[in-house]
Recover the amino acids of this structure.
């Protein structure tokens, strides 16, 4: 089991850099195939949501990402101090021609588990992906 | 953002970049809308080089389609990888876009 921890500032450029670093870490650890692409997309979607909707003054603020790679699955823990989610957004896709609203549906469909909790003013989102996901 | 494109008759084949995510979306969207604004409204968006795309990148495809349709044009997709195609199908965008594996077939479709 190996873990990589990063702290990102909540900007699109930092998100892209963070996803690339997590992807490189997982690639070096032998992750390949469709699940590696899903990891990139799901991590990006989770971070994009914070960047887009984090409403702290001055932007989304720092975002912590921990990627733990086990033999059977990988877990992402994403931490931020933006406003809490009242409930996890749903899995329903938007209208076909909508230009937004696909992030959470993708997360629901391409992860094997989603967890969320807020403690001491910090949101923690947990995403689990099985390494053998087809 | 500069996008490579090739004009074949009244159709333009536009290569999208290897990464099309939130950080890249505004530049790509503007570049594609600029093409449409120049009257190049039959676009084949070549996804052959796209290794990584998220929902922001998908929104670029949709906004380009809308802009082209508003100008009486059309947009089709070319040659997505298996992973990118899986994301397109997951989000049902294969119901919106025709997807081609062959550039000549895509160009013929829009030129017709």
């Amino acid at each position: 089991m190996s873990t990589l921890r990063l702290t990102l500032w909540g900007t699109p450029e930092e998100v892209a850099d963070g996803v690339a670093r997590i992807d490189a870490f997982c690639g070096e650890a032998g992750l390949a195939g469709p699940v590696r692409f899903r990891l990139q997309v799901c991590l990006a979607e989770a971070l994009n949501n914070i960047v887009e909707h984090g409403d702290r003054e001055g932007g989304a603020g720092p975002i912590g990402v921990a990627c733990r790679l086990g033999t059977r699955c990988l877990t992402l823990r994403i931490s931020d101090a933006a406003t809490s989610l009242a409930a996890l957004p749903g899995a329903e896709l938007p209208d076909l021609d909508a230009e937004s609203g696909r992030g959470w549906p993708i997360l629901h469909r391409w992860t094997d588990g989603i967890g969320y909790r807020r403690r001491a003013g910090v949101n923690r989102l947990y995403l689990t992906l099985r390494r053998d996901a087809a | 953002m500069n996008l490579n494109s090739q004009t074949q008759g009244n159709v333009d084949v536009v290569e999208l970049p290897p990464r099309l995510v939130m950080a890249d979306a505004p530049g790509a969207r503007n570049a594609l809308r600029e093409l449409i604004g120049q009257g190049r409204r039959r676009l084949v968006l070549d996804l052959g080089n796209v290794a990584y795309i998220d929902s922001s990148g998908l929104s670029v495809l949709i906004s380009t389609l809308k802009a082209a349709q508003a100008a009486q044009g059309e947009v089709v997709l070319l040659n997505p990888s298996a992973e990118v195609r899986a994301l397109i199908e997951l989000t049902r965008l294969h119901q919106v876009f025709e997807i081609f594996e062959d550039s000549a077939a895509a160009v013929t479709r829009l030129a017709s």
User: Anything to note?
Assistant: The longest helix of chain A spans residues 34-53. The helical segments of chain A are 12-28, 34-53, 103-110.
